[in-house]
Amino acid sequence: MFQRIWWVKHWITINQLYTVPTRGYASGTDAPGRCSPKVDARCYGGNSSTEPYIVAHHQLLAHAKVVDLYRTKYKFQKGKIGPVMITRWFLPFDETDPATVEAAERMNQFFHGWYMEPLTKGRYPDIMRQIVGSRLPKFTKDEAQLVAGSYDFLGLNYYSSQYAQPKHNTYPSEKHTAMMDAGVELTCTTLFPFKNGNSYYYPKGIYYVMDYFKTKYGNPLIYVTENGFSTPGTETSEQAIDDDKRTDYLCSHLCFLRKVIKEKGVNLKGYFAWALGDNYEFGKGFTVRYGLTYVNWDDLNDRMIKNSGKWYQRFINGTAKNHVKQDFLRSSLSSQSQKKSLADA
Question: Any idea which residues are catalytic in this one (predicted)?
Answer without folding.
Answer: 226
